[in-house]
Amino acid sequence: MCVYTGFVSIDCGLPENVVGYVDNDTKLRYVSDMGFIDTGTNHNLSAEYLKPSIGRIWHTVRSFAGGSAGARSCYTVRSLVSGLKYLVRAGFIYGNYDGLNRLPVFDLHIGVNYWQTINVSVAGVMAEIITVVPGDSMHMCLVNTGSGTPFISSLDVRPLENKFYPHADESQGLVLVSRTNFGASDTTFVRYPEDRFDRIWSPWSNSTIWSVISTTEKVQNSATNGNDTFEPPLPVMQTAITPINSSSPIDFTWDAQASTTNNPKPGYVWMLHFAELQPTGVRQFYISLNGKSWLMNGSCTPNNLSTTTLYSTKPVYASNQYNISLDATVNSTLPPIINAAEIYSVIPTTNIATTVQEGKQLCTECMWTSWEVIIFQTIYVYSAMNLIDLCVAAENATVSAISAIREKYRVKKNWMGDPCAPKNFVWNGLRCSYAASSPPTVTGLNLSSSGLSGNVSSSLASLRGLQYLDLSHNNLTGSIPESLSQLPSLVFLYGNNPNLCGNGNYCQPPKNKSSSKVVVYVLTPIIAVSVIVLLSIMFLCMRRRMQGTTSSHVKSQDEANITPLHSQNNNEHDSLCLDNRRFKYDELVAVTNGFERVIGRGGFGKVYAGFLEDGTQVAVKLRSESSDQGVQEFLAEAQTLAKIHHKNLVSLIGYCKDREYMALVYEYMSEGALHEHLRRRENNARCLTWRQTLRIALQSAQGLEYLHKGCNPPLIHRDVKTSNILLNANLEAKIADFGLLKAFNSNGDTHVSTARVVGTRGYLAPEYLATFQLTNKSDVFSFGVVLLEIITGQPHILNDPEPTSIVQWVRQRLAHGNIETIVDVRMHNDHDVNSVWKATETALKCTAQLPEQRPTMTDVVLQLQECLKLEAARNDVNA
Q: How far is CA 688 from each of CA 15, 32, 388, 652, 840, rounded to the nearest angstrom?
């Protein structure tokens, strides 16, 4: 990377073998972008665009073809100063580089926040933002919006002094609308070195209505007094305009940006720069905004050959159009004057980036604990070096733990930008948790079948919130760092790595004779202490297990199978061993007050409300003797729920296997099933709004997506329906009822065959009914039916007058293209029609006849997120 007074100057698409070059105009050195991004392809502009007037920086582009809508491609600029303000500028000249003559539209993100939508014109586009960088590195991402292939020509990063542009802070950034040099004598842009921060000032003059005045004398800048917050460059302040007609005002106008889901209420700030260049006479003028006086103290009188800047102290949200007018006062003998102006739109930058160094807490604990604890930790991880390495990695502020893992294993996937934020750009294979006002935390990491080699990275232990780790089906070697055992709730799958040593094997290479004596002297006391400590650990763990505390799991894949072994031996069923609390039947009698209140019924039996000793409300699902669900299905549900964890899956608190009694104890979902809320519409009761049901659909889709993608092996629910989507007090949706869950080996298998069809009529995929062959697309079909129920308010099977599936009913009614013929009338048209259309299209794709024509649940999640954005934008506009 080339650093010139802190500048980063990147020529995007420049071949890697080109060492760089010095720009003829700025004398700044530009380098290839190969060190900043590892995806995309280089292209040259078409020959007809390579004119001598176009600078070298515009000759090449890097494009990011092949990605679907929502794909993110990110540049990473490192070695920045945390908390400092930076000017970031991206340039785009299409130049028909791909021969398609198709100008694309795409989004830019700065870090985890939306920056700007790029709508490329023939002449090109420049995007610029002033932002505070929260860390020592920064991501600039191009986001495919489905309207063409993103590309980029150049990227500049320039440090600013923190006193500059006080509007830009940790909560908001400034996106450039215009930066104008009034009265310039030619069409030359003013930038570096005249502007030491390399801001680009565009020339503007109109000889038909403006008079240009200028000076060769130095215009004093208040930066010399240490109180200037903008510092416009000298050449800009040496020119100005005044009206030809001395009684005319100076007017300039700009249109407000359209409201979008990313920036629903754009606000603006501006800076007006003045200096008197004509000392004879009196120059005094009013400044108004949209016809109203803007200056609190009345009028403005510029200082002779000295810069005065007037600026809005906070964003203005005025109208669809803004007009600033400068009008001479009655006492003025000279017309108004202006030298330069800057206008910015304000964007929020409040999205929180992922926790960067979760290992720092461990290191701090090491430093402040007693020496006995340090010895214990050293023995526990078999080598003090593991702990030292972890602390060094945690203190290294340049690379986060997850980024270190990406670098070590050369993970491609979509691992660019922030791992967890924004939510709809989470890296493939990652699961993240999101708490209000706190950084996202990585809780799950699936790198199975990813071609990994080498040892297991110790950086994994720095992910202190990690609960699920799958490194199975790779070519990893060496031993498993025991530091992973310190993670309090980790489930670790590492099977099918033939050369990986687990379960306490040291995998140490043979030692030469010359060092054997030293090894004996050193290891003998360590081993002795290790044995004592390990015995103590075993005793503590056994005692904790007897008390029912949750422990950490480090298992091979074979040891962590989700479905139980099928056996007819009841003794084997009695030995069901889960980490969740095991209840006795008598305890459940007390919890439910003698099974007093029934809150649900199903094929398994009845569901009862209850309270634990600490007051926690629970739901107890008690298997009846006449239950359709057998012992195996009970065991499957219990063992599955003990091993899968997601915010949109109902959590298992405990279970009961006491003699002939079997029960599952769940978290209590106070608002019941989605099915009940949809049926309430029929009784004219208060029903859920479109926005609420859309959010419920999205959360349910995220739960299914986790089963399909976040579990190994992938899981198929097999009974997705509105009565198996439960709602808590906050109307947050969670998938329930996992008795029919089926594991699916995705490694080359196209389906899993079943002995019989199970599920609920009306929700079953046609190929499953016909062939008994099950895929994750079977769940997608069922979810499509659920989505149609939400949109229409109709049951999954209608009597119209003959029994008709809701899929057929919707397709028939939409034949004439009127969405209102299917939308539930009880929503009283309180919805965004585009949002409903998009949701309906998604549902119909889910219920396509052929499974290969259906989207994945990941695709469904993305589409529903877009639906929710459309509806949210409507609500914001109406607010």
A: 56, 54, 54, 27, 18
Residue (of 722, 754, 723) closest to 741 by Cα position: 754
CATH of domain 562-667: 3.30.200.20
Q: Return the CATH superfamily for domain 360-521.
A: Ribonuclease Inhibitor (3.80.10.10)
SS3 state of residue 494? coil
pLDDT digits (tens, 9 = 90+) for 525-548: 445 555 555 555 555 544 444 443
State yes or no: is 719 an active-site residue. yes
Question: What are the tokens at 790?
Answer: 């939400």
pTM > 0.85? no
Q: Residues spanned by CATH 3.80.10.10 within the chain?
A: 360-521
3-state secondary structure of 608: strand
Q: Which two tokens stand for residue 574?
A: 């009695």
Q: Tell me the torsion sign for CA atoms 553, 558, 561, 565.
A: negative
Beta-bridged to residue 151, according to DSSP, are: 63
Q: Which pLDDT tens digit goes with each residue over 800-859?
A: 778 889 998 888 887 666 788 888 887 777 888 888 989 999 999 999 888 888 999 999
The domain at 683-878 falls in which architecture?
Orthogonal Bundle (1.10)
Helix (H, G, I), strand (E, B) or coil at 213: strand
584 annotated ligand-binding residue: no
Q: Structure tokens of 394?
A: 């945690």
Catalytic residue among 719, 737, 779, 832: 719
d(CA 183, CA 206): 8
Say if residues 10 and 33 touch (Cβ distance below 8 Å): yes
Measured between alpha carbons, how far is 23 from 21 in angstroms, rounded to an integer?
Answer: 6
* Distant-in-sequence, close-in-space partners of 573: CB < 8 Å, separation ≥ 6: 567, 631, 635, 657
Digit-coded pLDDT (tens) for 212-269: 999 999 998 864 444 578 999 999 999 999 999 888 999 989 888 877 777 777 899 9
Q: Distance between the two ends of the chain, CA-based, in angstroms? A: 47
Task: Concatenate the DSSP letters of all residues of 154-175 into one string.
Answer: EEEEEE--TTS-TT-BTTEEEE
CATH fit for domain 1-160, picks 3.40.50.970, 1.20.1270.360, 3.30.420.10, 2.60.120.430: 2.60.120.430
Cross-strand bridge partners of residue 822? none
